[in-house]
ATP-binding protein (Candidatus Eisenbergiella merdavium), 207 residues
Amino acid sequence: MNTQHFNDPRRSPWTVLFLGGPSGTGKSTLARRIAGRYGTDLLEADDIYLAVKAAADKRHFPAVFAWEDGKDWQKAGVEENIDWLFDVGKELFPAVREIALRHVEDRLPVVIEGDFLHPEWISSILGTEIRALYIRETDWEQIVRNYLEREGGGPQHYRAEISVAYGERLEKFCRGLGIPCMEARPWETALERAEEILLKSGRRKRP
């Protein structure tokens, strides 16, 4: 692999790229930029969540349906919300894995991005053709500003607090698993930093 791959919009240096991280960190924007750079498909983990929820039995997917019985995530603790995000990631992983493996089999490059990408489970299918990168933002006030810019309405302080704490736990998982995790800012260099990180991780992969 060489840096020419990153300048060639017709060819990505991976077949499947998982781009994970907390809500409000800019990962969706970065995912769109990466997909646009290489002309690949883009899939949101939220869409997989909605598809599974529409077809699944809540007895077998308790996390997916956790807030369906009147329980309010805004009244749950930060750690309970983070546990829920990880639990949903575990429940969705079989579907995520099959989608990724199908894209590898058909040689159809795709970026899969979202909150529900559990690094411990994702790590089980990583290799030369399947890569992962996580993004985090440590400043909750920045995340509040991101939500306001993206969604309008009032400041979402509690949601931002959850996002920062979730990012901290994700980063610990990634560090232990050898999965790269990058800071969201500075925004203007995010794409270049992501490409450099993926290039270095690709060099470490065995063919």
